[in-house]
């Protein structure tokens, strides 16, 4: 069988398979992408949990506390990146997306579906990032109004495959109907 | 023995041990941090190789092709982040740094010390990111003038320890002489 990463369509299919696994399998490489946003003092990066990956239309979703820095950063500059590394495939995937912050009624069904332990991640006191005297000085206080969904509508997917016989880089764009093209690695 | 991640000084020591290993050990978790920069269309993220980590003064170094997007992005906005995840410790480390691009004579000794295979990563034709018809249409052409070092002088280190009995977040700042403080996770 031909290695799917040697063709553009095979590469894009591989990306979506990888993302779909990340959204459903806690142990998949795409489960914890790095989200890069524009902060006040330069770019910021942190790991997030991939909650949804849908190919048509191409979008991804993550959950967040509305008071967290990433939410205010995405409100100020919605264009951001997600990075996934699959060590078995030796494939780096960079997603460029424009993020919407969904909250309130729009995400009530997702909040209702969250197990109690997961809800405790949203709404604690004080707010995320606030200084506290000791690590224990933080109280879980699950609150629907603190919960939001960051929905990223994909604009570009860039892949870099670290192959033994030469690295392969490809770029796929929404404006190009995801046809894609090769680039110098 | 007390878990070092329960104290601020122990947390900072752990970060530097982790970074030092990343700079010397190809299999260490800190070997391949994610570098987040400010791109023209929002934040960008990609994996890099950590080449140096020095605690005093606190700085990190990575190598790059001078024609790569990260170099032009750091020239336009030197403030950027590096993210490391240590799965065994369940520790996320975010480094905020101001990057200088060092090239030419300043980095000639590092270029001389690079093995031939490593040199082939800098100076290929066409330049990184340029469209090519097929993945093989790229020629290695090691060139000292294409090699540069991205030196990040650290401004902040933020840690997040995903502990079973409650997550711990800490923030250390150069302006605070790296004394550090706890923050809400």
Automatic annotation (TrEMBL), chains A, B:
Entry-linked SUPFAM superfamilies: FMN-binding split barrel
UniProt name for this protein: Pyridoxamine 5'-phosphate oxidase
Signal peptide coordinates: none
Domain Pyridoxamine 5'-phosphate oxidase Alr4036 family FMN-binding: 26-102
Domain of life where this protein originates: Bacteria
GO-annotated molecular function: FMN binding
């Amino acid at each position: 069988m031909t290695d799917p990463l040697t063709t553009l369509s095979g590469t894009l299919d591989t990306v979506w398979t990888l993302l779909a696994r990340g959204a459903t399998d806690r142990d998949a490489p795409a489960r914890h992408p790095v989200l890069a946003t524009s902060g006040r003092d330069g770019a910021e990066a942190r790991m997030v949990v991939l909650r949804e990956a849908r190919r048509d239309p191409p979008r991804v979703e993550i959950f967040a506390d509305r008071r967290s820095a990433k939410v205010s950063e995405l409100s100020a500059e919605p264009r951001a990146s997600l990075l996934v590394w699959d060590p078995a495939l030796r494939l780096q995937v960079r997603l460029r997306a424009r993020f919407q912050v969904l909250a309130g009624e729009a995400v009530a069904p997702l909040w209702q579906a969250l197990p109690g332990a997961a809800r405790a991640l949203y709404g604690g006191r004080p707010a995320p990032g606030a200084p506290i005297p000791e690590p224990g000085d933080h109280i879980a206080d699950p609150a629907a109004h603190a919960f939001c969904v960051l929905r990223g509508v994909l604009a570009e997917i860039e892949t870099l495959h670290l192959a033994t016989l030469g690295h392969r880089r490809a770029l796929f764009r929404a404006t190009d109907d995801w046809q894609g093209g090769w680039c110098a690695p």
